[in-house]
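We were asked to recover a plausible sequence for a given structure. The inputs and outputs are reproduced exactly as logged, with field labels preserved.

PROBLEM: sequence recovery
POSITIONS: 117
GIVEN STRUCTURE:
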């Protein structure tokens, strides 16, 4: 079992930047993807970005060119660098680890990002 602790969310002005962090309780092996999802009030949870064990990444169209996902294997941590933030990026952001072989998902508790002037 993997425990995820996500952090870094706060209030930021439009055009600002934030970096979210997701720390896993142990080293993750195998065929997996770690990523960030977000959920705004009244909306479904949606994929923001994810990074695979191979290092390949994919992003939601809404964040391409503004957000960057990366991982530090030595620290068992995944980061989401968010630049040029918009009001529509306001949501609770959740870290996720998905194991492709077993179809298991683990979630962080979420961290709130609010973009407002």
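RECOVERED SEQUENCE:
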């Amino acid at each position: 079992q993997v425990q995820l602790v996500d952090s870094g969310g706060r209030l930021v002005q439009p055009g600002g930047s934030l970096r979210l962090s997701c720390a896993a309780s142990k080293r993750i092996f195998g065929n997996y993807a770690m990523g960030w999802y977000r959920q705004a009030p009244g909306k479904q949870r949606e994929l923001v970005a994810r990074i695979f064990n191979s290092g390949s990444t994919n992003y939601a169209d809404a964040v391409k060119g503004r957000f960057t996902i990366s991982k530090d294997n030595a620290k068992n941590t995944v980061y989401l660098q968010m630049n040029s933030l918009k009001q529509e990026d306001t949501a609770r952001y959740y870290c996720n680890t998905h194991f492709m072989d077993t179809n298991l998902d683990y979630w962080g508790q979420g961290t709130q990002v609010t973009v407002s002037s």
